[in-house]
């Protein structure tokens, strides 16, 4: 996560803000350039690591209670701590509810986690939970309002959708077409 100024994704026009206004724990690290060759994304050049505490949570306010949101997190280990070796595992929670396990086996892999959910409050609490299998960290955290009631109709106050697998695939557009 970027501790400095904002970063703009010039292709998609998305502005990434520093995470200091959303969390006050953790330590920022820069990913070595040798791990950035496969993922030249400015929003994953840094990360925030959480060596202390069992549960570290981001509090994202300015959320509209009852609205649908896409929450997306990215994890690029990049051997930031020089401890490359055994797999790294920790859990993600949305508030008190289990979201999914993050399981990293290759320091060069970019691991995505996504959930589409309805805001039960006027904020989200996104937590990284230490399960004793490595230090939790996060590279990027995104929150996007889904402003159409006609999509993801199965998502409601008691049902969320979680991305299964590593990525979405373009199964209909032209190869050069950007789909966001």
Automatic annotation (TrEMBL):
Keywords: Kinase, Receptor, Transferase
Pfam families: Malectin_like (PF12819)
Membrane topology according to the record: Single-pass membrane protein
Domain Malectin-like: 5-176
Localization of this protein: Membrane
Superkingdom field: Eukaryota
GO cellular component: membrane
GO MF annotations, alphabetized: kinase activity
Protein name as annotated: Putative LRR receptor-like serine/threonine-protein kinase
């Amino acid at each position: 996560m970027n501790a400095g100024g904002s970063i703009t994704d010039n292709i998609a026009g998305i502005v990434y803000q520093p995470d200091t206004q959303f969390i006050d724990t953790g330590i920022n690290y820069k990913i070595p350039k040798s791990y950035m060759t496969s993922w030249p994304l400015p929003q994953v050049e840094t990360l925030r690591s959480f060596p202390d505490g069992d549960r570290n949570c981001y509090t994202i306010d300015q959320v509209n209670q009852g609205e649908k949101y896409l929450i997306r997190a990215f994890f690029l280990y990049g051997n930031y701590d020089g401890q490359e070796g055994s797999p790294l595992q920790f859990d993600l929670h949305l508030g008190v509810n289990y979201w999914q396990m993050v399981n990293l086996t290759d320091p060069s892999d970019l691991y995505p986690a996504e959930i589409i959910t309805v805001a039960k409050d006027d904020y989200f609490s996104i937590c990284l939970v230490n399960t004793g299998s490595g230090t939790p960290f996060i590279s990027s955290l995104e929150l996007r309002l889904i402003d159409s009631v006609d999509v993801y109709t199965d998502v409601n106050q008691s049902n969320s959708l979680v991305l299964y697998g590593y990525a979405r695939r373009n199964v209909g557009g032209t190869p050069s077409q950007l789909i966001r």
